[in-house]
Amino acid sequence: MKRLIYADNAATTKLDREAFEAMVPWMTEQYGNASQPYSFAREPKKALAEARALIAASINADPEEIFFTSGGTESDNWAIKGSAFSDPDHRATITSAFEHHAVLCSCAAIEKLGYPVTYLQPTADGTITPEALESCITDHTRLVSIMFANNEIGSIQPIKELCSIAHSYGALFHTDAVQAVGHINIDVKNLGIDMLSASAHKFNGPKGIGFLYVRRGTRIGSYADGGSQERGFRAGTENVASIVGMAVALKNNASMLKANQDKVRSLEKALLEKMNAAGIPFVRNGGEHTLPGIISLSFDGRDGEAILHRMDLMGISVSTGSACDSKNTEISHVLQALHIPESLANGTIRISLGKNNSLSEIDEIASSLTKIVL
Ligand code: PLP
User: Fold this and answer.
1) How far, in Å, from the CA of 249 to the mean position of ligand 1?
2) Is any atom of ligand 1 closer than 6 Å to the C-beta of 102?
3) How many angstroms does the Cα of residue 279 sit away from the middle of ligand 1?
4) pLDDT in tens, 187-197
């Protein structure tokens, strides 16, 4: 049987083997409820504390600033709704038009309840500029929420500058860093971030687990009411196995960060060179400053959906845009926000490479694209 090539790592990633093995005991022998006072809970409790410390260290946070969640969607919902609902003055939120739907739909939900939201437009290369933020932020802004890097085109945002503008108006700064954590270096203290969302399955951890970093002293309401887990902010019995798996995956990615980045960047370069050499006409979206491995390609006058299906028939998994949008055949909101001409936007696919891809797979991807597009 032909080997399948997975090139949709921005949708999800393969679980790290060591992370998987580290999870097993917490689902078999060590199944105790970490929040109970007896001895059987001692080891799970210790494992949670160690995982929290590892995760905190990876972004230069303190352990008590890390709150475990079910993933990126929950972290984004919590940051946006939790900060709005703790503000009796209903001050405004500023976000961008090309955020993930976890942010956009959370903003739409608070808007319905009378909290104003402004949507900044990205530049053509996918950047939210400090000038764009300056033009609409006021003393009545409570929260600025701008993603660390876009999931469809990979463009990395000027987080430090945006943060400092938000703070100079007394606003909080949240970033959806779901695509960035575990792939590029992030130091929340140096950047000045108040809240940061992350999701384990994007960095070779298990699905259905993530975290929200909340800087000490940040005003935010609880996400789930019930038990006193996560210091009363996010009730629910802790998913010890997944939390341990997330911490091991993040530690492993962090320890190989530079090597992984170099590998993925060289695969990316090889793919683009092969496409150029084959004479395939394409436009790459996302500008110069992108996450390693996220490659958004537009083929003028082509149908991205058809390209995806033909690549699938050849055993290669890519995406037309955001994975969460795969049922939506309209032009994605990200490409719309970039004002990409329709004939290019319709012919767009996203190839997202990861540390497990190889050069021989790049050869196959390039030769398949040559057959399909030329
Ligand atoms: N934010 C971004 C930028 C994403 O790419 C995704 C997933 O695609 C999410 C949030 C949602 O994360 P999760 O799948 O963990 O809910």
Assistant:
1) 17
2) yes
3) 34
4) 999 999 999 99
